[in-house]
Every structure is written in C-alpha cells, then in structure tokens.
Specification:
This protein folds into 9 domains: about 120 residues, no CATH class; about 270 residues, 3-Layer(aba) Sandwich (Rossmann fold); about 80 residues, Immunoglobulin-like, CATH 2.60.40.1120; about 90 residues, Carboxypeptidase-like, regulatory domain (Immunoglobulin-like), CATH 2.60.40.1120; about 160 residues, Jelly Rolls; about 80 residues, Immunoglobulin-like (Sandwich), CATH 2.60.40; about 110 residues, Immunoglobulins (Immunoglobulin-like), CATH 2.60.40; about 270 residues, Neuraminidase (6 Propeller); and more. Helix content is about 10%, strand content about 40%. The protein contains 14 helices and 101 strands. Helix 8 packs parallel to helix 9. The longest helix has 30 residues. The termini are far apart. It is an enzyme of class 3 (hydrolase). Pfam families: CarboxypepD_reg (PF13620), Kelch_1 (PF01344), Kelch_KLHDC2_KLHL20_DRC7 (PF24681), Peptidase_S8 (PF00082). Belongs to the peptidase S8 family.
C-alpha cells in the first residue's frame, strides 16, 4: 500500500513564513520581473533530477527555489564611497528578491510551509515539501529552477609536520615574501578587514585576539557585527568546535611574539561559522557578509562588511548550482574580494571542487616548501574549461593557530587560500586606490605570480591547470601596484605627567587614506601612508583625547609624538553575590558599558575593583561566569571620592537547572524529561501492544522542536516505519493539588500531524480511576509551542493525574512533549549545598594544570574540569568550581593524565564558596646529553654513543624508546651535498613516453624480440647510474638483503633464466650466486628472516608451482612446499614475516588474469588462501608496510588500472586506497622509507620513466624524480635500485640505476637501518636513571650525513624531546673520486663546457655511463678494485676521446677532456 504524502515536515532553524523583507530606496535597479518567463521551458524541466530522485525515495524533502530576476549591479563599481556602495548593492538585491518572490511566498504562507528567504541569492529554501508542492511552485513563471540541497564540507586536511622557520617566520610567509612586504613597504594590512566563512574562530587565541575587530582594546569585546553564528553553536561570541577556521584565520591575521603565522598581522578580522552544517548556513553567512548585523540579526550595516573573505570549503566535484555564485557575484559588486580553496581531490585532473571551480571565483592550489605541487591539490579544468586553480600558494605543513591557544601544522588547499587572502589585504592596505576593485586585483595577482610549468592537466607554462597563473608572490604583487608616493607617520603616545608610554592608545588617521592604529607596549605607532595632510585623533582610556594635524611627505618619516593628560579618577569596588537564596560569592566579570575597563571578581569572595574617571555616571555590567545566572546592569553615580557598589545577581528562571545549587520546583509536578527513560512516577502505556510507545531518546534525530531544551518525550510514528501502529499514553504520577487554587496543565509541544492520528490530553482527579478529555488535537501544532489548559476541576484535589494519549497512528509523523507543569507555577529553588573552588597545581614546578578533574568521592556525579582563564589575567589557570550537595567534611579527588591523583578532606560550608587547592605529583624526565653523533666509515664502521634519562619528578615513569628517521645529506664526489628533500623535489630526467609494443606474455614470438632497445635517456640527477647488469634482463625480481641487492631469475625476452646475481654497492660489482634450480621469469620473491623465498613464475610450460628458499651464507637453494595456485607476474609483498602473492598470470600468454591471493609462512612451510583481490590483474605493484599489504595498478588483460587496495591481516579484508596518479602496470616497484615506490612501466598507454610513491600515513601519492631510463617489466629493490627491463616488446636491457636516499628497508616505517637502541623500555622511580646506548653503523650506500632520533614516549604530562642522532658516513677506504670537465673547442678556437656529454667508464668487469652537467662537469665515486679504467667521452657533433686511468683513494682522479668538432 502506498503511503499518503505528508503535507509538511520538520521545522528547521528558519524564519517564520510571514516574515517580511525590509526594503530600502536604492540607486541600483532590478532586471527581469515576476512576469518574465524563466528559462527552462516547462515546469517539469525546472525541477532538477536530483530533487526528483530524493522525492521518489521519501515523500517529502527540503528543496531550493531559484528565481530568474537579477538585480542590475553593474553600476555599483562606480560608487566610490565604501558605505554607499555596499548599501546600494544590498538594497538592489533586497528589492529584486521582494518583488520576484512575493507570489511564491504567498503560496508557501497559505500552505503553512516552513521556509527561509534569501536576497543575496534570489532564492527560497523550503523545509520538507512534497512533490506536489514542488510541481506547483515550478509552474510560477518567475521561478527558473528547483534544486535539491547541496552538501558542502570543509576539505579533509591532514596533520603535517612543522617545517623549519626563519627568524620565527613560518615557511609560507617567507615563501610568498610577505615579510619583505612588511619591511620594504611598512605594510601589515592596517585599515583592511578580512573575514572567514569556516568552522568558526577562537577569538581569544593569543595570536588572534589583538586583531579581532570585536576587541575593544581594554579586555572587553563587542561581538555585534563581528560574528555570525550560522551553525547555532555559540550565539554570544565566536567559537570553533573543529579547529579548521582558527587555523585558516591564523594564516591570514595571526601574530604572537615568536609565532609569526599570519600574512597580514595588521588587519582586523570578523567571522561566520557557516561551514558546513547546511548549504543554507553557508548562503546565510555569505549574505551576512554583505551587510553584517548585530548578534540578534538586526540593524544591518553595509559599512561594516569585510574587504576580503576567505573560503576554505567546497564540494568535492564541480557543481552548477547557482546559489553561492549569486552571492559571490554580489560580493564582487560590493567590492569584496573572495578567496577560495580549489579542493583536495588531486592528483587527478578535472577534480576542482565548487565553488572554487566556478570561473567567477578566484581559487588557490597548494604547494610545499620545495615549491612542488601537493599531491592532494585539485587540478582543473574548471567551469566551462576555465584554468583552475587561478593561483597557488603554500599549503603543505602550514603551521598556524589551533583552538586551545596552541599551534599545529596542517596540509590542504584550505591552508593555501588564506595566504592569498592575506596577500590581497597587504595589497589593498598599501594601495587604497585598489580597494574594492576586484578585477584589477585579480589581474595584478595573475601578472605577478611566479610562472610554474606543469602541463599534466593542460595549459601553458604561465597558466596551467596545476599551478594556475603560478606561485603567489606578495612582494611582486605590491611592486606592480599603483601605490603612488608614500611616506611614514610614526610617533610615541605618552603620559603628559610621567612621560611613561601609553600602550593600547587608538590613533585614528583621516586624510588621503584612513587608518586606525593601536600603540604597542612602548607607546609607539607607525604606518606607511600616501603622502598628504592628515588629522590624527588620539584616544586612550583615562586620558583626555587630542586631535593634531600631520603632513606626510613622500619618501620621508614624519614624527608626531602625542602627550595625553590623565583625568582624575576614583575607585569603584564591591562584591557580587548570589541573590536567589544561597548568597554565596559569585565569580563574575564586571565591566563598564561603553568604556574599555573591566575586572573579574575574586571567586572566593566576589570582590572587584575598578578605576574610573571621577564625577560621572556609569552603568556597570555584571556577567556571572557560573551558568544559569542573569546578566545585570547597575547605574553608579561617582563623585570625587571612592564608591562601593555591591550587586546581588539572581538566577534566570528559564535556566534554573543549569545554575549551581538550584532546581525547578512547583506547587504540583514539573517534568523536563532530561533522562533516557521515563522519569520517576511517570509511566508509558502501550495500548496497542506493538511495543511502539512513548520514548525519551531521539532515535529519529528530530531535535527538540517544542521550544524546550535538552531531552523530551516523543512518540515517533515515522521512525517506527511502515506497518507500525501506535496507541500509547504517557501518564504522570499522582499529584497532590490540595493547596492549589487555580491549577493548569502547561507543556511545550510539537505535533507534526498527517491525517488520521489523534493527540489527546486527558485528566483524572481520582488517581486514574476515571479520565476526562481536556484537549483533543487532530491538526498540526508545530513547535515551538507552549500549550496551557486550565483545570479548575482539579483545584484542591489530591489524586490528580494527566496522560498524553497518541492513537489511531499508522506511519504518521510524531508528537513531542516537554516541560510539563501540573499545578499553577514553576519555581527556581535553592537546594542544600555549597560551592567548592580553587586550583589544581603541578607539584614539580608549581604550575597550573588545565584539564584535571575534581570529583566528590561521596557524590561522583558532582565533578568538574579545570580550565584556563585567559580573559582573567588575575586568576591563574587550572581553575575549577563545582557545586557540592554535601556540606561538612568530605573527600574530594583531583586527577589528571600523567599525574598521581590526590585526595583530600574539604570542609564544605553551606551557602558559601570553600577554597581547596590540589597539588599533583608526576614523574618528569631529563635527558643528557640532548643529542648524540658519531663518525663512521663505510661499509663496516660502527660507534656507540650513550645518553642518560633521569626521573627528576615525584612519581614513577614508564619509558619506551623508539626510532625515527630524519633524512640525510649525501656527499657527492665533487664535494657538493644533496638533501633528501632536494632529491624528492627534483624533476629528474626529462619525462619520456615511449610508444612501443608491449606484451603480457611470457616470451616473444616471431620477430618481436629482435627490435633494438631504446637508447638510455640523458643522465640527470638525482638518479645515478650503477654498474650494468651482467646480461640483458627483464621480468627479474629484485630484493634487498643485508645491504646488498639480489636479482633473481628473469629472461632475455626469448627464454627464461636460472641465473641470479648480487650487487655490492660498496664494491660496485655484480657477482653470480647459485643458480635457481629451474629457469623462471616473473617469479614472486621476498626476503623473510634472512632468506630469499621464490615461488611461481613462468617455467617451461607456464606458471610453475615450485617454491625455493635461498640462504646467502650457504649460497644454496632449498626446495619448499609447492605453491597451490602458482602465478606469474603476481604482485609480491612481505608482511609480518610472510610472503604474499597477489593476482598474476595463469598461462604462458598471461590471460586470463587471476585474483587469487596466497600467503606463504616460511616458519611452518605452508600456504594459505586469502580473500580474493578486488580485481583480476597481473603485473601489479605491491608492498608490505606496517603489517599491511598495499597494491596498485596492474592489467586485467584489456585495460590498465590505477585503483589500489590494502589488505589488513587483522580484518582479513581488502579496502580501497587512493588511486595512483596514472594507470600503471609492469612497473619497477619496492617498499622503501615506509612508502610504496612505483617507477616506470606502462603508464597511460606508453612506457615511461615517471614514478610516484604511496604514503599509507596520508593515503596519498606524491611524484618521484623521473628516472633516466624508461623501462617496463624490470625489477626493483629498496635502495632504490632499478635493474633491467624492456623499452618495448621483449627488448631486454642491462641498464641499472639508483635513486639515492631510499635505503630504509624495514617493513616498519619507524625503523632506521643504520641505528640501534639497546633498550626498548624502562620504569624509573623518582631519582632513578637509565643509560641508553645508541649504536651507529655505516650500513648505507652513499657517504654523507644521516639524521635520525630516538623517540622517548612516557606516561608523564610533559613532552620529552626526541634525542637527535647524527651519523657522518665517510666513504669506504677503497673509494676514490673520478671527476673532470668536458669542454669543446670550436672551429674559431673558442672553448666552452659541453653539457650532456656521455662519459662511459669501462673496467675489467663492469661499465658505467654518466653525463656531464650544465658546466660540462662530471664527478662520481668509484671503487679502486675496478682499476684500470677506460674512459670514452662522446657527444653528437664532436670527436670522441678515449683514455685510460686509475682510481686513487687519497687524491681525486681528474680527467678533463677537450673535444674537437667533427667538421669545420
């Protein structure tokens, strides 16, 4: 049976249906009219498919109505007055919306619908409307579209690591040259207001509080016009429950001493928390920015709109919904610059998220400290093929403010966009003529950006879909701006009597530019200004104001010192106490309205003191810091003497239960239903016997719609679902109303009615024997609603009961009831007890502990948490208070993480505040020395260093020690050094894409193998050539064991091989080892417990089941259990000491591919079948990291793959991971440094030298430097060594090369191969110490400086810094340097270096190929055991030269070559 549609749905946080729009005269006019036919054809065409789909799934849905009429805002830019321009835009938008929406609003009002009307976008959002309603509204000619809601979100950011700062500057600030703008132009953003629509902001964060526009400068704040609570989280003041918004605002405006985190620390900021509860919250926030209002949403004022708005949010994919674009176009017309993040859905193309993807919005991509684009940074193109992002800015490991007063690093385009917003603020502060000129500003940004070529997603070197116009450069931006002649106005404000500086004085400048400055702690102010005449108005609390003229001359500093005269003052003091019955002292903020002066009372006695100018009348504002109390004002008349003003503050009756020591009472019964079950004395009757009755938990997620707060009673027919039936009563306890003369039943309710159900209120005066109906409801009674029923028949009766009866209900909506009174009045009455308050301190350093809990042992529910008190400078942190219902001597216990708990007896005084301070003991560690280092010689040098850890605290400490890699700086043969970051950021060789025949088969057929191999590309750092493999090889498998590289089996393209070789990076030679018992290629191989396990691979007749184990010490193979499902070209990985074989080929031709997954356990010599891989593929890349197997790519026989999956043995299941940047198969792959490296292979239909690395920690891919050779079906091992492979078909090669710095081969990413720690854990009693020995061994492939750290984790409340470990690895004694320069002498006799000359070095057993750099130089480490050497130097167009030389270990071997041209 079909369910009849509900005519209405739940109410949201919406305006009432009859709310009227306020209209104002305007200089701008509307285009279009209500009678104009909307584009889109028939009404059905206007209804978007997503909305139709939603309405088919549920009979009602929220939806948006968009109107075709547009305000003509084209003339707004000609209005030069900031206030008038903003007002004109807002007025035109309001008028257009009012005219075009009138008929639709009338229809909605007539239907009783809940909706919210907007004017910044000409739209209405309707709550819970039916398909019939949608069709009716779409029929209006003025409607041009009806849309489903859109889900926006804060992009997922990842926690980063702090990059090094320079002179306390964050790297991003220095990277965009913002600090150079500060020093060269003297501009930090003064006069500009920035805003964010985000998750909110911690307004009192130390780095943000000074630049908050609501900061009055005296410790008081005015949040009107400065904060919009779109999410309904914190109506009174800005807050941030997520942290995202505090971080982005810090990057725009933050500064606190050494924490120089903001691009424009001189700006003022405001905010809205519109992201992202709903799309309506976002649009309401965008609308508020055009005309900010007070906290009540009244008195809009366009003069207070911001200049720049940051928007670090969006959808994951482009969207064509018009609503937010309407708003942003209105911003631009109003002169507001909108900055947008481009999204974190990279690295694929076409991933820009909306609204950043819209061509009308200016969006930002993200790059890292090395100027490399972030893997997550979304790419274009955007809407209509527009280049996206527009520009790029720092967005990786960006350190900024986080809630709680701290700092942290995050990564995302969310972090890049505020760099752009801050740069625009600097620009507009320095160039007032540009303020409001959005188009000119965008053009300057485009022209001044640093061009950064990246054509992977289309575009040109100077404008592409990866970096946009390039990298943001704030200095170049201002250098290009029309700033004109400027000078500096500076001075000091002092006390006229004492000469002392006056900090916090306001210096307001009016003239060619307007500025409002605040003096620093030294009383100084300074600002770069356009030259001209100014009026300087100086004000400071307690001083008489002064206004002085000043002339600012071009290229000069004008000094204007101002001495202010203090006015006579008196002291106003007193105490603040409870006025509702307890009388105890209150902790409260006492401020003076309209003045920058305030004080907090002392919590233990309620005393306060204020110093105010004499002979005046003031209005004191008292704001209790305990919940539930009212804020009160008192007028105080002050003469020439001190004044005492005591204030008693009463509890707010509406918030009675939140006030400490108070509770609701009545002369009958009053119930708020705040538990999760029927309150004591109340009962639920299930008359239908279906188990579907009244409940006290909100399983349908409706929220309290009655107008009450907290819990409520509900019978939710809709949540019970189709086929349900409800006939249920909520019955009160028996109430004695003997002394009540005029009783009533009063309650809050929300009845969402459909058709047949009934909602009755019945009364019994005889204890439930008989019942009389007093209210019958058979229509909507939507909340918030207070219903009152007089029951005079119950006056003087002692057996009164009430029941709420819901019946005849079958899959309807719901009935909510709250705050039920049976009597005549609700009272707020004191309950017995007293306050306990004080601090929790650290017994080691006497500091204060935030986040500790203090609990009454005898009443465990009476507990609280200590907090910081940043606003009250006289009250230390670690403060707590709680209400104790027990008086007299009782035990209280304080606890905090890492501390030993303390319990103490506290004598609680009734109706007073009792002070109790706790001191918590904790262990505390000191480490000496703080760092260790050692110098060792490769390959066998070792050294041991120690550090000592001592417990200096008062409690035992459990200590654990671990390892963390820190990177390296390799020493090159020419004496230069290269860091890990430089290697990773390098582009490597030019990208190669070889379009050649490829094959999945075991070997060549016909002439396929006879094609000549592609020549090796030009040699380019950081990849280095290593000794060629002894034979041409492909389909070999390569592993790393004990610092050496083993190549197992493979083939030459026509036949499989049993030959195996080991490469010694020190000797730089390949040596043969025992042959495999049978010839194989494309085997599965891995290292477990010092042995090499080999299985599968192509044998003589297809995939072979034999499994062998190789022991390097014995140089022998041992046969093991046969593989039950042998495959060739399978993915291979080792995890938790077991070998995994994933997918692979089932025949000599490979197809069909397998999705089998097998695991071999060498300990038991057994095989085990595991859950299938999600795709049947071969030639995929796999690796084990941290006990998890990660795989990517492969080929299913017809299509290459880019998808990847992870297998967790703990869950025994495969889950998807991020797609690789490109489809890939037959790549060279290995695990190194905790990442899965994938290099070369076939990518996007061509054999390539490109590579990328997967990081499980961030589920992200990053680019690797391009290799020198483009090969597929080759092998690779940790190191990172790439051996053999084919450049097409079956043309096997001997080429081998290495990417230095990837030598961490342990499966656990935290393990450092060259470092050992002799202790993993210890327990230290107070005063006890432990000595840790750090072993440093030169088990690395390249000389240089290697860093790591010993991580110390412990159970104390303190942070213990890791112990840095530095190893200087000297080259082996057998190594020497071969270096030189290759020059060419032209036919005219002019000599010059030859770049890219090939230097081939042949020894008695091996050969290497190098290339000269841009200066014609080459330099390499070589082992003297390869002597003698033959050098052949060649370059196209030049005569080659050959000579012999030897490596000398004591002095470099220098071989310079001067080539002659082949012809002149």
């Amino acid at each position: 049976m079909l369910r009849r549609p509900h005519p209405r749905g739940p109410a949201g946080r919406l305006v009432s249906a009859g709310a009227a729009l306020v209209l104002a005269a305007t200089a701008l006019v509307a285009t279009g009219s209500g009678a104009q036919a909307a584009p889109g054809g028939t009404p059905a065409d206007k209804i978007r498919p997503e909305l139709v789909k939603q309405l088919q799934a549920k009979s009602e849905s929220d939806f948006w109505i968009h109107f075709g009429a547009r305000a003509d805002l084209s003339k707004a830019g000609a209005i030069t007055d900031w206030t008038k321009r903003g007002a004109a835009v807002a007025d035109a938008l309001r008028r257009t919306a009012a005219d075009s929406q009138a008929k639709v609003r009338a229809e909605l009002d007539g239907a009783g619908a809940k909706y919210q009307s907007f004017w910044a976008t000409n739209a209405i959002k309707v709550s819970s409307g039916s398909l019939t309603m949608v069709q009716s509204l779409a029929a209006h000619a003025e409607v041009d579209g009806v849309y489903a809601p859109v889900a926006y979100e804060l992009p997922e950011v990842t926690k980063g690591t702090d990059e090094k700062t320079a002179n306390a500057l964050e790297w991003g600030i220095a990277n965009i040259n913002a600090d150079d703008v500060w020093s060269r132009y003297g501009v930090t953003g003064a006069g500009i207001t920035v805003a964010s629509i985000d998750s909110g902001v911690q307004f009192d964060h130390p780095a943000l509080v000074r630049s908050y526009r609501g900061n009055n400068g005296d410790g008081t704040f005015d949040h009107n016009y400065n904060w919009f609570d779109a999410a309904g989280d914190c109506a009174a003041a800005p807050c941030d429950g997520d942290g995202h918004g505090t971080h982005t605002m810090g990057t725009m405006a933050g500064a606190d001493g050494a924490n120089q985190i903001g691009v424009a620390p001189g700006v003022r900021w405001i905010a809205a928390n519109g992201c992202c509860p709903t799309d309506a919250a976002l649009i309401a926030s965008g609308q508020w920015m055009l005309e900010p209002t007070d906290l009540d949403g009244e008195n809009p004022d366009a003069s207070k709109r911001p200049h720049v708005i940051n928007n670090s949010w969006g959808t994951r994919l482009p969207s064509n919904d018009p609503f937010m674009e309407d708003v942003t176009l209105a911003w631009a017309a109003s002169g507001i610059f909108g900055a947008w993040s481009n999204g974190n859905s990279g690295p694929s193309c076409q991933t820009s998220g909306s609204p950043g993807s819209r061509s009308s919005n200016y969006s930002t991509g993200a790059y890292d400290v090395n100027n490399a684009i972030a893997s997550f940074s979304a790419r274009g193109a955007g809407q209509g093929g527009a280049v996206k992002p527009d520009i790029s800015a720092p967005g990786v490991n960006v350190r900024s403010s986080i809630p709680g007063g701290g700092y942290g690093s995050l990564s995302g385009t969310s972090m890049a966009s505020p760099h752009l917003a801050g740069a625009v603020a600097l620009l507009w502060s320095a160039a007032p003529a540009l303020v409001g000129d959005v188009a000119a500003t965008r053009a300057l940004l485009d022209d001044s950006a640093i061009d950064t070529a990246d054509a992977q997603c289309g575009g040109t070197a100077d404008d592409n879909n990866v970096f946009g116009e390039g990298r943001l450069d704030a200095l170049a931006l201002l250098d290009a701006a029309p700033i004109g002649e400027t000078g500096t106005l500076a001075g000091t404000v002092t006390d006229a009597a004492t000469g002392d500086p006056v900090p916090g004085a306001t210096v307001a400048l009016t003239g060619p530019a307007s500025r409002q400055l605040t003096t620093g702690a030294d009383g100084r102010y300074s600002s770069l200004l356009p030259a001209g005449d100014y009026q300087v108005a100086v004000t400071a609390f307690g001083y008489a104001a002064r206004t002085l003229p000043a002339m600012v001359r071009a290229a000069a500093t004008t000094t204007l010192d101002v001495a202010l005269t203090a006015v006579p003052s008196v002291t106003v003091s007193g105490s603040v106490t409870d006025g509702s019955g307890h009388g105890w002292p209150l902790y409260a903020k006492v401020s003076v309205e309209g003045l920058p002066v305030s004080d907090y009372t002392t919590p233990g006695n309620g005393r306060y003191s204020l110093t105010l100018p004499a002979s005046a009348t003031y209005k004191l504002k008292v704001e209790p810091q305990y919940p539930g109390y009212q804020t009160v004002t008192r007028e105080v008349v002050v003469g020439s003497g001190n004044k005492t003003q005591n204030v008693a503050v009463t509890v707010d009756p509406a918030a009675c239960t939140t006030a400490p020591g108070y509770g609701y009472g009545s002369d009958g019964v009053y119930e708020t239903f705040d538990g999760d079950r029927a309150p004591a004395g109340w009962s639920v009757v299930d008359n239908a016997g279906t188990g579907q009755g009244w409940r006290f938990t909100d399983t349908g997620n409706r929220g309290n719609l009655t107008g009450g707060t907290g819990g409520f009673a509900i019978v939710d027919s809709d949540d019970y679902g189709s086929g349900g039936k409800q006939d249920t009563s909520l019955v009160s306890p028996v109430v004695d109303l003997t002394d009540v003369a005029a009783p009533v039943i009063r309650f809050n309710q929300d009845l969402n009615w459909v058709s047949s159900e009934r909602a009755d209120v019945d009364l019994s005066v005889d204890g439930g024997e008989t019942w009389t109906n007093v209210l019958r409801q058979a229509a909507d009674v939507r909340g918030p609603k207070v219903t009152e029923i007089a029951i005079p028949q119950a006056a003087g009766r002692s057996g009164v009961q009430v029941r709420f009866h819901y019946y005849d209900a079958t899959w309807e909506w719901w009935w909510q009831v709250d705050n039920v009174l049976i009597g005549s009045e609700v009272t707020c009455a004191p309950t017995d007890g007293g306050l306990v308050l004080g601090h929790v301190r650290d017994a080691n350093d006497n500091g204060y502990v935030n986040g500790a809990t203090v609990t009454s042992d005898d009443r465990p529910a009476q507990t609280t948490t200590t907090v910081a008190t940043p606003d009250d400078t006289e009250l230390p942190d670690g403060f707590y208070w709680l209400f104790s219902s027990l008086t007299g001597a009782h035990r209280f216990t304080a606890k905090a993480g890492g501390y030993v708990s303390q319990g103490k007896q506290v004598t609680v005084e009734a109706d007073w505040a009792t002070t109790a301070t706790f001191k918590l003991a904790a262990g505390r560690l000191s480490v000496q020395p703080a760092a260790v280092s050692g110098t060792v010689r490769m390959p066998t040098g070792t050294v041991a260093k120690t550090f000592t850890v001592t417990n200096t605290g008062g409690a035992p400490v459990d200590v654990r020690f671990g390892e963390r890699d820190g990177g390296f700086e390799l020493l090159r043969a020419d004496g230069s050094r290269v860091t890990q970051r430089q290697i990773l950021a390098a582009e490597g060789a030019p990208e190669q894409r070889i379009t050649a025949a490829t094959s999945l088969a075991a070997r060549a057929s016909g002439k396929a193998a006879s094609a000549a191999p592609a020549p090796a590309g030009p040699q380019a750092a950081p990849w280095t050539d290593v000794t060629d493999f002894p034979a041409a090889i492909m389909d070999n498998r390569v592993v790393s064991l004990d610092g050496k590289v083993y190549s197992i089996a493979g083939g030459n393209g026509t036949a499989s091989s049993a030959k195996n070789y080991v490469y010694d990076p020190i000797a730089q030679t390949w040596t043969s080892i025992a042959d495999l018992p049978g010839a194989r290629n494309a085997v599965t191989a891995g290292v477990v417990d010092g042995k090499i396990i080999v299985t599968g691979g192509w044998g003589a007749s297809g995939p072979d089941a034999a499994t062998w184990s190789y022991d390097p010490a014995a140089n022998a193979w041992t046969q093991k259990a046969n593989n039950p499902a042998p495959r060739s070209a399978a993915g291979q990985a080792v995890a938790d000491g077991k070998l995994y074989a994933v997918g692979g080929c089932t025949t000599a031709n490979c197809t069909p591919m397998s999705n089998d997954v097998l695991r071999y356990d060498p300990a038991s010599d057994t095989w085990e079948a595991l859950p299938d891989y999600p795709k049947a593929v071969a030639f995929l890349s796999c690796g084990g990291i941290g006990g998890v197997v990660y795989c990517t790519g492969g080929n299913d026989g017809s299509v290459a793959q880019k998808a990847g999956y992870a297998f967790d043995p703990g869950t025994n299941a495969w889950t998807a991971i991020a797609d690789a940047p490109a489809d890939n198969w037959a790549s060279s792959f290995a695990v190194a440094n905790g990442k899965l490296l994938v290099v070369g292979g076939s990518q996007g239909g061509a054999i390539t030298n490109a590579g990328f690395a997967y990081d499980p920690a961030g589920n992200s891919w990053s680019a690797l430097p391009n290799a020198n050779t483009a090969r597929y079906r080759g092998g690779a091992a940790c190191g990172f060594y790439k051996v053999g492979g084919s450049s097409g078909g079956f043309t096997a090669t001997a080429d081998s090369e290495a990417l230095p710095g990837f030598g961490e081969c342990a499966e656990a990413a935290a393990d450092v191969s060259w470092l050992t720690v002799d202790k993993t854990a210890a327990t230290l009693a107070p005063g006890e110490k432990v000595t840790v020995t750090v072993g440093i061994a030169a088990t690395v492939d390249q000389p240089g400086t290697y860093t790591a750290s010993v991580v110390i984790t412990e159970n104390t409340p303190y942070t213990v810094a890791p112990v840095p470990v530095t190893m200087t690895a000297q080259p082996p004694k057998t190594w020497g340097k071969l270096l030189g320069t290759v020059t060419g002498t032209s036919c005219q006799g002019v000599g010059a270096p030859i770049s890219g000359a090939v230097v081939q070095v042949d020894s008695w057993a091996m050969s290497w190929t190098f290339a000269t750099d841009d200066q014609g130089r080459y330099a390499y480490w070589l082992d003297k055991r390869n002597n003698p050497l033959t050098l052949i130097v060649a370059k196209d167009g030049w005569k080659p030269q050959t000579r012999q030389t030897k490596i000398n270990t004591s002095t470099p071997t220098v071989e310079n070559f001067a080539l002659a041209p082949i012809r002149c």
